[in-house]
Amino acid sequence: MSEPLLTLERIGKVYGAKMALHDVNFSLYPGEFIALVGMSGGGKSTILRLIAQLEAPTSGEITFAQSDMVTRVMFQNDRLLPWLTNVQNLSFKSSDPTQQARALAMLDTIGLADFANGYPSALSGGQKQRLALGRALMADPQLLLLDEPLGALDALTRRKMQASIAKICHDQQLTTLLITHDVEEAARMADRVIVIKDGTNIYEADGAKGQDAATIGTVAERVLEVILNPATPARG
Ligand SMILES: Nc1ncnc2c1ncn2[C@@H]1O[C@H](COP(=O)(O)OP(=O)(O)OP(=O)(O)O)[C@@H](O)[C@H]1O
């Protein structure tokens, strides 16, 4: 296997009297799509903030394959700029023709080629999330962090977006870390699923990305069982 893009070793994070994380250990490999799942308050978002270097761990070490790694985060709230057109949200109004051409090509990749000159307010929830993904991808990130990006979408749109995001990440060979409460979403989208509970990674299993519904269901059931019963072996 290739060298990891990043490795978390014995990571701890304390906020005042609250120990949010203790002893988190895992690596993320180039081109891999991993999902962190677990109940609310388990520490998933804290791990994401540490990997994004928005905060530092209290203990332990995160090793990055390179110091100047380009990382982008996509949140549940799309954070689009409503006063810019959709294509300008990708090009940031750059007058550079190369950047403009890239923005148009990206709209095509995310299936919004017909919406270039409209505004985000006229897009559906799923379209807004695709535009937010396109904006993150414009930076050519080596690492994409997805923090519950589909949490606000209705069930059908969410399902479509799972397939569309997984495909875009796969086609671009992006290294991706997804945070979700939804075990089926994790099983469907990820190569590897890691369960975070009470501030530590208690279990990991191969995901069922691109596989049939029965396999996705089996992985999701197993992961759910582990989340509900922590006294389970550490590898599925
Ligand atoms: N800035 C902070 N100050 C104090 N406590 C915090 C802070 N950030 C997180 N915590 C605490 O750390 C624990 C882990 O929080 P975190 O948001 O990482 O969990 P999570 O698994 O992402 O939850 P959710 O799924 O609800 O987003 C929680 O008990 C939370 O209250």
From TrEMBL:
InterPro entries: AAA+_ATPase, ABC_transporter-like_ATP-bd, ABC_transporter-like_CS, ABC_transporter_ATP-bind, P-loop_NTPase. Residues 6-223 form the ABC transporter domain. Pfam families: ABC_tran. PROSITE patterns: ABC_TRANSPORTER_1, ABC_TRANSPORTER_2. It comes from the Bacteria. Keywords: ATP-binding, Cell membrane, Membrane, Nucleotide-binding, Translocase, Transport. One of its GO terms (molecular function) is ATP binding. This is ABC transporter ATP-binding protein. It comes from Lacticaseibacillus baoqingensis.
